[in-house]
Amino acid sequence: MFLHHRRSIGFLCLFGLFLLLASAPHAQETQEGKDPIDIELEKASAGNTREMEEAVARAEKQWDKELNRVYQTLLKELPNSEKASLRASQKAWLAFRDADFRASKQVVRWRGKDGGTIWGGVYARHRMDTVRDRVLRLRDLGPLGN
Questions:
Q1: From CA 141, how far away is CA 60, in angstroms rounded?
Q2: What is the pLDDT, as a whole number, of residue 27?
Q3: Are 137 and 71 spatial neighbours (Cβ–Cβ below 8 Å)?
Q4: How many CB atoms sit inside 10 A of residue 4's CB?
Q5: DSSP structural state of residue 1
Q6: In whole angstroms, what is the distance from residue 120 CA to residue 124 CA?
Q7: For residue 50, what pLDDT is reported?
Q8: Which of 57, 87, 102, 125 is the most buried (most CB within 10 A)?
Q9: Quick one: CA dihedral 129, 130, 135, 141, positive or negative?
Q10: What is the dihedral of CA 94, 96, 99, 103, to 10 degrees?
Q11: Cα Rg for the chain, rounded, in angstroms?
Q12: How far apart are CA 125 and CA 143, in angstroms?
């Protein structure tokens, strides 16, 4: 019993550290102004574990939509000579994303085999952050008239 309790506390500490580290690269962004997707997520994340997972899943879909918008805008703005490079980069990133999601899902299943609901949230947040990070990186490549 004590070992299981100690293990649960360790997992919660790990999750807290994960959330802290996940937000660190974007500290400057939040100081300058938050993205509307992030604001909506913060408002919706005050519920129970299931509600938070659902809010993160909705935010991932919104970030994916924004990813497509930013990517298409960049393609329109780039000279023809540069478009192939962006397309190749995006194709490689999509392959990485898909492989990363598959691997992460397996790790989460393994971590959650002893029960607990935290790992679903960790996986949902990982997926959303991966897509969000790509959007922010593509936005950094040039003016997009956001």
A1: 21
A2: 38
A3: no
A4: 11
A5: -
A6: 6
A7: 82
A8: 125
A9: positive
A10: -130
A11: 18
A12: 28
Task: Give the side-chain half-sphere CA count within 13 A for 92.
Answer: 6
CA distances from 20 to 16, 24, 68, 92 (A): 6, 6, 27, 28
The answer to whether residue 5 scores a pLDDT higher than 50 is: no
Q: In whole angstroms, give the CA distance from residue 128 to residue 89.
A: 20
In the chain, what are the domain boundaries? 2-139
Q: Which of 28-42, 52-66, 130-144 has the lowest mean pLDDT?
A: 28-42
Nearest to 116 by CA among 2, 1, 7, 3: 7
What is the pLDDT at residue 124?
Answer: 92
Q: Which residues contact 53 (CB under 8 A, 6 or more apart)?
A: 120, 121, 124
What is the greatest pairwise CA distance in the chain?
64
Token representation of residue 20: 């802290």
Contact between 144 and 77 under an 8 Å Cβ cutoff? The reply is yes
Tokens read off for 48? 């129970």
